[in-house]
Design goal:
- The chain is α+β, with helices and mostly antiparallel strands and about 100 residues long.
- It is about 60% helix and about 15% strand.
- The chain has helices spanning about 5-20, 25-35, 40-55, 75-95, and strands spanning about 60-65, 70-75.
- Strands 1-2 form a two-stranded antiparallel sheet.
- The longest helix is centred in the last third of the chain and has 21 residues, at about 75-95.
- The model has no long low-confidence stretch (mean pLDDT about 90).
- This is DNA-binding transcriptional regulator, PadR family.
- GO terms for molecular function: DNA binding.
- It comes from Rhizobium mongolense subsp. loessense.
């Protein structure tokens, strides 16, 4: 992913946003990010999910899917509060960097 160091924050925000909306799992998140133009590999996403969980933004559980198991992620109350604060900061930033103030 070009400019990965700058865009990784946007990827984390996408993850937290979707985890706040409901269940997500890694493969679905990779596909969702691709819809938005982010090329994120499993080798990048899964450590990111584990890191967000370790920091308390996400919680996970294991669900059985056929013969396999899938880790499902949701935002924690801490993650929901963080997301609201980040939305405020994002609006402020976008007002500054977007010349037509469409944010």
């Amino acid at each position: 992913m070009e400019y990965q160091d700058l865009l990784s924050g946007f990827v984390r925000l996408h993850v937290l946003h979707h985890a706040a909306e409901g269940d997500l799992h890694g493969l679905w998140m990779i596909e969702e990010l691709a819809r938005h133009g982010y090329k994120v590999s499993a080798g990048t996403l899964y450590p990111m999910l584990h890191s967000l969980e370790k920091k308390g933004y996400l919680a996970s559980r294991i669900e059985r899917v056929g013969r396999t198991h899938r880790r499902i992620y949701n935002a924690t109350p801490y993650g929901l509060v963080a997301l609201e604060k980040i939305k405020e900061k994002a609006k402020e930033l976008f007002r500054e960097i977007l010349p037509d103030n469409t944010a």
